[in-house]
Amino acid sequence: MKNDIESAYITEGIHEECGVFGIYDFDGNDVASSIYYGLFALQHRGQESCGIAVSDTKGSGGKVKSIKGMGLVNEVFTPDSFEKLSGNIGVGHVRYSTAGGSTPENTQPLVLNYVKGTLALAHNGNLVNALELKDELAYTGAIFQTTIDSEVIAYLIARERLKAVSLEEAIRKTMEKLRGAYSLVIMSAKKLIGARDPFGFKPLCIGKKDNCYVLASESCALDGVDAEFIRDVEPGEVVMIDEEGIHSDTSLVQSKKAKCIFEYIYFARPDSHVDNVSVYNSRIMAGRLLAQIHPVEADLVVGVPDSGNAAAMGYSFESGIQYATAFVKNSYVGRTFIKPKQAMRESSVRIKLNVLTDVVKGKRVIMIDDSIVRGTTSERIVRMLKNAGATEVHVRISSPPFLYPCYFGTDVPSGDQLIAYNNTVEQIREIIGADSLGYLSVDRLSELIKGDEGYCDACFSGNYPIEPPKQDIRGEFER
Amino acid sequence: MKNDIESAYITEGIHEECGVFGIYDFDGNDVASSIYYGLFALQHRGQESCGIAVSDTKGSGGKVKSIKGMGLVNEVFTPDSFEKLSGNIGVGHVRYSTAGGSTPENTQPLVLNYVKGTLALAHNGNLVNALELKDELAYTGAIFQTTIDSEVIAYLIARERLKAVSLEEAIRKTMEKLRGAYSLVIMSAKKLIGARDPFGFKPLCIGKKDNCYVLASESCALDGVDAEFIRDVEPGEVVMIDEEGIHSDTSLVQSKKAKCIFEYIYFARPDSHVDNVSVYNSRIMAGRLLAQIHPVEADLVVGVPDSGNAAAMGYSFESGIQYATAFVKNSYVGRTFIKPKQAMRESSVRIKLNVLTDVVKGKRVIMIDDSIVRGTTSERIVRMLKNAGATEVHVRISSPPFLYPCYFGTDVPSGDQLIAYNNTVEQIREIIGADSLGYLSVDRLSELIKGDEGYCDACFSGNYPIEPPKQDIRGEFER
Amino acid sequence: MKNDIESAYITEGIHEECGVFGIYDFDGNDVASSIYYGLFALQHRGQESCGIAVSDTKGSGGKVKSIKGMGLVNEVFTPDSFEKLSGNIGVGHVRYSTAGGSTPENTQPLVLNYVKGTLALAHNGNLVNALELKDELAYTGAIFQTTIDSEVIAYLIARERLKAVSLEEAIRKTMEKLRGAYSLVIMSAKKLIGARDPFGFKPLCIGKKDNCYVLASESCALDGVDAEFIRDVEPGEVVMIDEEGIHSDTSLVQSKKAKCIFEYIYFARPDSHVDNVSVYNSRIMAGRLLAQIHPVEADLVVGVPDSGNAAAMGYSFESGIQYATAFVKNSYVGRTFIKPKQAMRESSVRIKLNVLTDVVKGKRVIMIDDSIVRGTTSERIVRMLKNAGATEVHVRISSPPFLYPCYFGTDVPSGDQLIAYNNTVEQIREIIGADSLGYLSVDRLSELIKGDEGYCDACFSGNYPIEPPKQDIRGEFER
Amino acid sequence: MKNDIESAYITEGIHEECGVFGIYDFDGNDVASSIYYGLFALQHRGQESCGIAVSDTKGSGGKVKSIKGMGLVNEVFTPDSFEKLSGNIGVGHVRYSTAGGSTPENTQPLVLNYVKGTLALAHNGNLVNALELKDELAYTGAIFQTTIDSEVIAYLIARERLKAVSLEEAIRKTMEKLRGAYSLVIMSAKKLIGARDPFGFKPLCIGKKDNCYVLASESCALDGVDAEFIRDVEPGEVVMIDEEGIHSDTSLVQSKKAKCIFEYIYFARPDSHVDNVSVYNSRIMAGRLLAQIHPVEADLVVGVPDSGNAAAMGYSFESGIQYATAFVKNSYVGRTFIKPKQAMRESSVRIKLNVLTDVVKGKRVIMIDDSIVRGTTSERIVRMLKNAGATEVHVRISSPPFLYPCYFGTDVPSGDQLIAYNNTVEQIREIIGADSLGYLSVDRLSELIKGDEGYCDACFSGNYPIEPPKQDIRGEFER
């Protein structure tokens, strides 16, 4: 029976694995509803589970109240939730995970008691040395109740706290042991702390609203709570917000960065600015580059909704070819819908996406998408365009071909499931039925972010900024 | 507590009140899943409740199985539903209603037993003489268990059936008594019947797939089940589908038509064709007309998602001004989300819609929307654009001002709640904070549908094709 | 999957099909919570669905608010329900039905609009001429949206109201047409009405609390709302409660009664008084009679919980043999629990009922139960006693053998499913593995109710007080 | 809103805090459904939450699948649950807790990974040195994700495992550190282990069915799965079940025992045998003792359902006074029902319990209950009897007065909430309105269990077998 349910968001494309949010209200107002709206704005970063944990900096003695659950933000929280979640400091989390780890135990924020009181921790990213660290901890008596590496981070902080004077110090010491990607938002009884790994794989930024400080994965979440963008947390930086205000420890900041380039291409919301670059602009640029690298004579440029639209517009700007809307997306298809039987398979895509026949009929169409993973969806969309009367369909992809797995927090699968791993571009073109096919080239990716070279493109190039684990531990972590 | 829940789809804009779907599979295959996909494609026509009723033309003796419920299609139906709903003939319905009538009793399809067996009835539209007919029926002993006028139609058919030979005849006789808007899909033990009022207020079309006939409110639902569009049901026509195939009774067809023009402007999905006109094209045309009537010097034309986009593109085509995407819509905001407290009110709009600052900053922007009802939302969006740095915001509305209530199945409110009823265009401009404001003019509406004059624009002009009821019975119907 | 779920209450024994409740508060207080508590006390009369409908005698113009649903009273109603259900007059209903008719449409109270306003109707009992009446109505244009005969009653009342002056008159005229069992509680805009069929098959009584009148199926529901018992509604009587107080129409009262004897034996709660007879006392009497008719030498008398306990006590009183508790009932086994696989079948009974080994070990046990339907449960319980060490098990049944179907509102099945229909008492004894078996004899049933002869024992004797329908329409009603 | 919901099971009387169950099937069959039925039989030991964890001794490498949730067994588990829970070894838990700790995090079994693999742990009882142990662990880097002391036990086992050769050894070493009450069922990848604290506060027994071994809090759960009772686990014993069969470590067995006497009086199910004593028989004995200590002239002895019935029967045996059933209990009042408003308060008790007026009217009644905590319920029941016509009501309590808190796993409150702490017996008699009142005396408690002196009666006598914690940490544990 389960197999008849297709989770529309989950089975297609590549997924970001988390979004984090934190807030501290110095006026003592409840913050749970702000976290709720912040998580709404970050929902695209994870749709499997979510949670909010809050505390009161005055009087509660660090007692943490939390509600977590499987599902979307608007499924897990009800008006009653906010009655329970009183407190002026809090963190929130949205999560996507591979099927194996999708359990109630693994929802975040992780809430825990340790020698110095309570902590709530929200984590975006993936460690590459989690197993080693976990083994080490286990050999000194740790027990694990989840299969997320955030629990490892929590343990390390707790252990460091035994030695160190301050929480900040403990976090810094912990960061020295962690290898991989992590943007963290941590709440203690009286402090809100943000931390970002020295490579800066995953984004994290700071905002301010009235007498509140806010931390969020993306600036769109600041907009969602009407907070003003202050700045990004620097890779390697630890930001502490407490009653004395905001201060920062940059001792782990290093020169080499490895910001995930796919955040710009696909993950982040176009209205976000990540590390001083407008996500929207970098997508426009991706389209422009495609027009330069893979020009073609055509009547229209169209984007595959929603992520392909900006690049399509960029292609149009650069090439002078007319931009058009060719698809209608059904916004009512939720996280799960019942998958049609064999005979209806074809319409599965059409339920979510339908072609505007009047737009494409008799036209030579350039279709822009952000990526091709397995090729199945692309093939169907090309066919839909041709069935609707497009005379030619030229596919342009606003990223290079996926060739290598990602170990830093996204679910790019291993090679044998990647169409580009097993096929040449020409073969892929044939498989998806396009008249021509062009990818963005690896060597021009830096142009998406104004020439900044501090990014990670390992999923395209295989150049891992940190040595990947010997074996692919993703999914195996729960051994 | 209830008041804290805002139903995002329901409280804003004008709503279509229903969508209908029917299918007959001559090969005897189960049709429930096709109805499910058809209703998905029609979900924009009603998000409050939905239902499916099926029967088996062979052997079941007309026994109807049905599942109905409050909520979206993907909330009401589960994989288990389809085990229960076996049968090769069926009808489906999606519904929106004014708050008062939003109850389990009023969900459709209406399923009933009468002297000749069973009927299931799905109705889109509103009668203007429902109260008179209801009174008449009551005075001959009818009892009513719902407050929908579809029950009146069912009664009349049952009464006519006592006299008439055939179901088709009974439906035709019933139609002679009905005044108002109705597109009906009716299922009896062995027949599927479609009927459309002589004015053709609401759309209804016919499709075919393999050995199935399909009836649907819009052609996008035919696409949703991979059926081929055959033709629209003619206003006044009754279409019968039974084991002998499809035949038609056009004796009530008249020359005067009154097709709802707002279907083209807003209700219908852009990928639908309604009465031989592409909805998308008529929106492009609306934009072109706006550019002709209300030209203005500017840097960008942007649409308010999703419905304003096509008209914005049309404006761009006609004016030569650059089309752009200025907004990001949060597709995870579902039917209900928890409304922020006073202090956060502003962000309520930003959760659903955020501005791409990089696009509009320093630009003179033409913003296209389909309509203004109360003005609140427009005012907020204009403000968002200005806050994002737009130097001028020129609002263009792809319909004339709403001035009169609609009695035919949409929820255009009565005058005092309509901003245009109490204010001049200049006053509205000031209220919403725009630098200029222009509406589409009533006298050019026919151009949206290729010059066809058979449309209803009563909500704009007050020219009701059928005399409206003495008093506004909408909402009062449940007296 | 469905088949793995066993509905513990539903599959065993014989079921009452409904309980009704009504209340009118002259002080204008809300009555929904009283109805809720009243239905709680009547829950044993129906566990499939329930509902409450209320109105306000002042100012609402008869607008009825109702909440109905599948499930137990504590599943269907929540604290929110009572916010919606404001009103000082109301009716409630609990229902059990055969599987076919167990649908949301068939929940009660039936709420309807008709020529004179609104009615809400709650019905306990079954008509024998429902089909004839339904056909008659259909031939004059009625449509049916449920498969319950209560809808037929509602129609007839509506039709009579067209002719008659008053609602009471209409109800009386309707009663003249109805043949069968019915205890009705009906609410109009300003009146609460109780009516009982002339044979008085099903109970109905009147209570008073402060400035409220209450109607209920059983007096235990009066206790449940702290109301004082006034009297039973007389068979054939119509009781009207309106702003002028309580008055009564006894014109249909006849001498011949046919009160369901099985109410005393099993259906009614022991703390109820039905038609001036204590249900508890009549069960004690049943036990005494069994001791007289079927004496046996033994060490203990035990009852099968809960219904067999009173008769067991009566047997003990009469015989002088020690009464004992031999079983522990698991009160957490709810309406549904998951049925064990084949291998565990045996424990299915033990989950619900376990034997107190220490009580029965080495003892000769007389086991009293209220009835045997198919024999399966009896066989298991006898075996459990023997496995626990009982040396002899003598089964005594406090009713005669079921031989004939009931057409008046309980689900005594047709003959071929009744163990007594196909087997002699000696054969049954062997099947269930008892050392002896004795039933109460038909000719002594009147002693259960102090010698009153006005009762129906058709399920035992075949003496139907009203001619049964030609064919068994139960379950077929939904043709 | 929450305050309107009264949880019927939770707010009255004294509660046992847990029940545990474990099973190992050597034939490799799935055990989840057996655990389900076992937990059903133990539901009276905890109604707030429950859980099942299973593993497969062959091939799964100790991967544990678990489902846990708030609610009753039949609310948390569905047929789908059993598809997920495949495995031939498993543990289950039912739990009641004080309000503060009633959260999803605290549900059991606790499932964890540690250096040697996985463990699932189910715990009944309460440690008195949990805080000290927790502090100790915290100071060596432990983090805590729950507020249950079972997590402390898990940690200690994990730490010991680092040193010790075997799991059994680690458990024994852990037990040397634990002070307080614990009956544990623990599952590792290949073993099922049962352990009981040296005082034997809480029960634990062993059963066998076919090729399965079973561990359960009470023998009634063995009956629930048709398993044969083998023996009780000895206080201080560790029982190991693995592929080589069952073996036992009794090195911690000591001579001094402290079995909870209130298990016999109230907690355990009467069909259970605990430490070789029939719970039913010890209740009969309690009644006999009451008749000896507090004789009184009367017409009837009645029990307050359900727990008072056996003692009432014992009183009857000893005194020769007639035993009778005086109350009807409403078995449909579930875990929560909506509490009446002020005006209806009285009926709150009558909804759950009604008097059989015919039984008690004009009679001198001896009413037996198991305990009096606050006195409110007793007062209402006495009043109900008098209102029903009882001329005298003599209350006999089958336990001594509660005077001291329990620190070993039941929720006997602190003194100021105990009626007996602040009032003499005579004062209590007056408060509850009884004509006489008698308690069982502390010095005769051993007679309930055949003269065995190894029991704990600290809640009555203040003689704590283990020194209680300095401060009352119950509820504070979550500091």
Can you summarize this structure?
Chains A, B, C, D: InterPro entries: GATase_2_dom, Ntn_hydrolases_N, PRTase-like, PRTase_dom, PurF, PurF_N. 4 copies of one chain form a homotetramer. Chain A is α+β, with helices and mostly antiparallel strands and 479 residues long.
Give an overview in words.
4 copies of one chain form a homotetramer. Chain A has 479 residues and is an alpha+beta fold. The first copy, chain A, has 2 domains: 7-257, Glutamine Phosphoribosylpyrophosphate, subunit 1, domain 1 (4-Layer Sandwich); 278-452, 3-Layer(aba) Sandwich (Rossmann fold), CATH 3.40.50. Chain A is 29% helix and 25% strand. Chain A contains 17 helices and 26 strands. In chain A, strands 4-3-5-2-11-10-12 form a 7-stranded antiparallel β-sheet. In chain A, strands 6-7-8-9-13-14 form a 6-stranded antiparallel β-sheet, covered by helices on one side. In chain A, strand 23 (364-369), helix 14 and strand 24 (392-397) form a beta-alpha-beta unit. In chain A, helix 6 crosses helix 7 (167-177) and helix 10 (279-293) packs across helix 11. Chain A is globular. In chain A, 60% of the residues are buried. Mean pLDDT of chain A is 90; it is low at 1-11 and 475-479. Chains in contact: A-B, A-D, B-C, C-D. The interface between A and D is medium-sized, with 29 and 29 residues.
